[in-house]
């Protein structure tokens, strides 16, 4: 089975010979997770110069799939197609008070051709909280930062732009295109959303024409807040939530292996969560999420990895925080989670109805009995 790394090994053409493909767009979006701060400290700004395996191991250490990202960088370094790509204007900002975590980098693919990669969700509590804030906020801080970043780059480095990102990064890329005006939107050639959440409302036709959105067949994240069906379903060799990882997606030459529809479970989850969110007002969503994350922060860990590595301590602190919450909060939790469970099972029942319908049974006709005659 071909994957992202196999694609890099088998496509040696330069970008002038083979323009940016769907797979290129996903690979560059994935690179946003790399620790460019460490690379900048070593004065490395080109993939071909990334030759130290120990440094490569260090800059992918905190990514979701460190082994696959390590192999990807090793392969890109030798690729005639990718090795001369340069990056600049890497930015990373976090603000616990405003619940913002933002990161972006610009790649130069050729003269006046740029790709802005927005980083997706990491393992930090702040990142996850900002993601969930999308359900009730008109826009989140990272979305506004993504738009400003593109505006600044387009002013400094005029030319054609591609935007992309995985997970939350895909949402940031689409948001940026959606809210760019005039010349700035005209400069954007394509936008890649790699299993990124939607924008809650249908996109204008002009923006939708530029957006290429990929989701795996068991997608959950990519279908959140997504009112449209203008996405492509990619075949993955993984199971369940692991399909969110693009390294599990199957590649067919310069494209992805596509399916006609998502899985039944993915459809059920999207429908149930959408229905559930529509039942809650924004104030309830905010209060529920604030109380949920306050319990998680009681562990004093800011990263889910640290929480998992110290799970016994974490569980104990979470249980204590739960017991200390007010009766009003506990009641709200029961109400909100109860609505979600009820909506999910209601949707599951409707989904299963066609499968539970009993087949019609046709019994053979019974022979007619002869009428009884009286005996004398």
Q: What this model shows, in words?
A:
InterPro entries: AB_hydrolase_fold, Mbeg1-like. It comes from Secundilactobacillus collinoides. By secondary structure, the protein is an alpha/beta fold. It is 45% helix and 15% strand. It has 2 domains: 4-262, Rossmann fold (3-Layer(aba) Sandwich); 270-351, no CATH class. It contains 15 helices and 10 strands. The strands form 2 sheets. An 8-stranded mixed sheet has the order 1-2-3-4-5-6-7-10, with helices on both faces. It has a two-stranded antiparallel ribbon with strand order 8-9. Residues 372-376 have low confidence and may be disordered.
Low-confidence stretches: 372-376
End-to-end CA span: 88 Å
Q: Determine the fraction of residues in helical runs and give it as a percent range.
A: 40-55%
- Which structural class best describes the helix and strand composition? alpha/beta
Assign the CATH architecture of the largest domain. 3-Layer(aba) Sandwich
Q: Biggest β-sheet, characterized?
A: 8 strands, mixed
Run of helices and strands: HHHHHEEEHHEHHEHEEEEEHHHHH
Number of domains: 2
User: Could you tell me the strand content as a percent range?
Assistant: 5-15%
CATH class label of the largest domain? Alpha Beta
Protein name: DUF2974 domain-containing protein
InterPro entries: AB_hydrolase_fold (IPR029058), Mbeg1-like (IPR024499)
Pfam family, one: Mbeg1-like
């Amino acid at each position: 089975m071909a994957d992202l790394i196999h694609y890099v090994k088998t496509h040696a053409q330069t970008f002038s010979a083979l323009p940016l493909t769907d797979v290129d767009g996903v690979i560059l979006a994935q690179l946003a997770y790399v620790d460019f701060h460490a690379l900048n400290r070593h004065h490395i700004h080109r993939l071909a110069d990334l030759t130290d395996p120990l440094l490569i191991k260090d800059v992918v250490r905190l990514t979701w799939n460190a082994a696959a990202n390590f192999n990807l960088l090793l392969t890109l370094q030798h690729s005639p197609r990718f090795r001369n790509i340069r990056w600049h204007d890497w930015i990373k900002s976090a603000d616990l008070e405003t619940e913002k975590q933002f990161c972006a980098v610009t790649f130069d693919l050729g003269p006046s051709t740029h790709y802005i990669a927005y980083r997706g969700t990491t393992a930090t509590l702040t990142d996850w909280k900002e993601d969930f804030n999308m359900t009730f906020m008109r826009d989140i801080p990272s979305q506004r930062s993504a738009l400003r970043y593109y505006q600044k780059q387009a002013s400094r480095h005029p030319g054609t732009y591609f935007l992309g990102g995985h997970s939350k990064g895909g949402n940031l890329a689409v948001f940026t295109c959606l809210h760019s005006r005039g010349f700035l939107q005209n400069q954007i050639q394509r936008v890649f959303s790699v299993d990124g959440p939607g924008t809650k409302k249908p996109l204008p036709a002009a923006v939708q024409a530029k957006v290429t959105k990929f989701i795996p067949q068991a997608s959950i994240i990519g279908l959140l807040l997504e009112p449209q069906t203008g996405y492509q379903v990619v075949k993955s060799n993984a199971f369940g939530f692991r399909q969110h990882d693009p390294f599990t997606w199957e590649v067919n030459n310069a494209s992805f292996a596509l399916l006609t529809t998502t899985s039944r479970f993915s459809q059920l989850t999207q429908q149930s969560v959408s229905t559930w969110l529509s039942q809650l007002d924004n104030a309830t969503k905010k209060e529920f999420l604030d109380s949920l994350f306050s319990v998680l922060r009681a562990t004093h860990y800011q990263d889910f990895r640290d929480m998992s590595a110290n799970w016994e301590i974490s569980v104990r602190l979470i249980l204590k925080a739960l017991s200390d919450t007010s009766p009003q909060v506990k009641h709200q939790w029961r109400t909100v989670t109860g609505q979600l469970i009820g909506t999910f099972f209601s949707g599951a029942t409707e989904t299963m109805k066609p499968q539970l319908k009993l087949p019609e049974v046709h019994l053979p006709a019974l022979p007619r009995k002869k009428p009884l005659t009286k005996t004398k």
